[in-house]
Specification:
195 residues; mainly alpha
Length: 195
């Protein structure tokens, strides 16, 4: 069975095999990021619960381990409220403009040695550029509601994002100077070893 798969695999064109490998890497990376975020959120909620002398999320699964997935399902089946005077298309597309750059930034991250979807020499600049692009989705969401209060809140949120990005950029300058490269894979490799 495995031999038949490999002979079929070798019969496919090189561009198709390369595309399927890249697609598999993207799916693997997306699943890893989503699971890490889900369980880090669960851990945060548990710690906050203990700090407030309460149990925290414990309803779904053993000790609440399936709670993040129940929360996602609940959010997906909730009614989508679109303001009546809003620009419907922009209101729906705005979350994509905020999420796509966040997921795209993971393409240059080196999760383990030799694994990154794109080995970009200017990976640090790529991450900074995509982090700045995410603010446009928030501004568009506030503007598309056709409400001055929502737009004012979106502008405040975008200003906070830009302000934090400036500090993050200055923090990365020291890392780039110490490593001598903008490639995130080489920066990670430069930190290997140790005591």
């Amino acid at each position: 069975m495995i031999d038949a798969f490999f002979t079929t695999w070798q019969g496919w064109p090189e561009w198709l095999r390369g595309s399927l490998i890249s697609l598999g890497q993207i799916v693997l990376l997306t699943v890893i990021v989503i699971l890490c975020v889900a369980y880090l959120t669960l851990a945060e909620r548990k710690v906050i619960g203990y700090m407030q002398a309460r149990i925290g999320p414990n309803r779904v699964g053993p000790k609440g381990l399936l709670q993040p997935f129940a929360d996602v399902i609940k959010l997906l089946i909730k009614e989508v409220v679109i303001p009546t005077r809003s620009n419907r298309f922009l209101f729906i597309i705005a979350p994509l403009l905020a999420l796509v750059p966040a997921f795209s930034a993971w393409a240059v991250m080196s999760l383990w040695p030799g694994f990154s979807i794109a080995n970009v020499d200017a990976g640090v600049l790529y991450v900074l550029a995509l982090a700045g692009f995410g603010a446009y989705g928030i501004i568009l969401a506030g503007w598309a509601t056709n409400s001055k209060y929502a737009f004012l809140g979106a502008m405040r949120s975008a200003a906070q994002i830009v302000a934090y990005e400036i500090a993050m950029g200055f923090a990365l300058v020291g890392v780039v100077m110490a490593s001598g490269t903008l490639n995130l894979g080489k920066i990670v490799e430069g930190q290997s070893g140790g005591p």
